[in-house]
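Task 17 of the worksheet. Students: predict the tertiary structure of the chain below and write it out as structure tokens. Keep your answer in the requested format; marks are given for formatting as well as content.
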Amino acid sequence: MSTTNTEPEGAYPLAPRIKDLPKDLQPREMLERFGAANVPDAVLLAVLLRTGMRGRNVLDLAADLLRRHGSLSELSRATLEELSGVKSIKRVKALTLLAAFELGRRVRDEQLQDSPSIRSPGDVERVVRPLADRASVEVFWMLPLNKKNRLITRGPVEISRGILDASLVHPREVFAPAIRASSAAVILSHNHPSGDPTPSADDVALTRRLTEAGRTVDIRVLDHVILGRVSSDGKRPAYVSLREAGLVDFEGAKP
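Model answer:
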């Protein structure tokens, strides 16, 4: 017996059923073969949804959900009513998605409990120092923090590498990842390969510019910590905090 779809002449062809796809293109088989970290979002959603509907396989449904909401992040914030209101998504499937997204959030929250707490320039140095010591050029980092001043990414986010020029560190490049991470505040940091952490006029001007930009997006810039190296005579510090040095009015940018 043929398993091909039959439609009136001139009709658009129906999407192939999942069981009619080659094994290596079926969601569960792809997940098992390549691992969860190596398959597209639509495949992971398809595994949760399990089945499609007449004329649309489960991969099509998963891809349609992502298109409707614009991104996986936006989909994860959808309510039960929004999900179950989609014609192809039954209430049980909507509940399955809600449960999966909530589990993901709870795992993230548990991990954040073990993330570094950034409460002083010394805390910033401890987090950034391993990266700065390996860098032979100037690197600019942003540390996104939650309301409890805990780092909410696996490490500092690299913004630029090379000669630190204000034109290369655009507010958009700094705050876009901070917004995606739902940051309450950020701390800026970069290294001086020369070893001297003394802030330049450009460093101060850039910090003021980013601090003002933070006000616009309601994300506080708490400090800018420049890392160098302690001099042999011990007179030169390992880092300089622009907040401690009083070079920038960070409180003025409070939302």
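Marker's comment: The chain has two domains: 18-113, 121-253. Residues 51 and 58 are 5 Å apart (CA to CA).
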